[in-house]
Specification:
This protein is 18% helix and 7% strand. The chain is built from three helices and two strands; from the N terminus they run αααββ. With 120 residues, the chain is α+β, with helices and mostly antiparallel strands. The longest helix has 13 residues. The relative contact order is 0.18. Strands 1-2 form a two-stranded antiparallel ribbon.
């Protein structure tokens, strides 16, 4: 008769006897520098400048692009906190997603110039 013993152990996981400490979560960073136009809050704007369709056809239907630009104009308190995802913060100096759509605002917070980056 043959009797065998099979032992199973896990590798790569610390055990209580190994002295390893549990992982520590990274500290959450506070927002130090709020987006520059976030103070305007929801900002309805009855008239908007013409959209920058000069750079070529939009990547989405024109109605969708218009709706996104209108949202960007009227909600800097939202898009200012959304980071850019395409690398434009390095290439174009954008600080938040609102910079992909709005190039300039007047002192009242109304959009005076669009950024064509959002069309693509």
């Amino acid at each position: 008769m043959i009797v065998g013993v099979f032992a199973y152990t896990r590798t790569g996981e610390p055990t209580a006897s190994s002295g390893a400490q549990p992982p520590v979560a990274a500290p959450v960073q506070a927002v130090v520098d709020p987006p520059r136009f976030a103070a305007f809050g929801p900002h309805p704007q009855p008239t908007l400048p013409p959209l920058p369709f000069d750079a070529g056809p939009p990547a989405r239907p024109a109605e969708v692009v218009r709706a996104v630009y209108k949202f960007a104009a009227e909600h800097p308190e939202v898009l200012g906190y959304v980071p850019c995802y395409c690398g434009c913060e390095r290439e174009a100096g954008h600080r938040g997603n609102d910079d992909c759509f709005v190039a300039a605002r007047n002192t009242a917070g109304d959009v005076t110039q669009w950024d064509a980056h959002g069309v693509t």
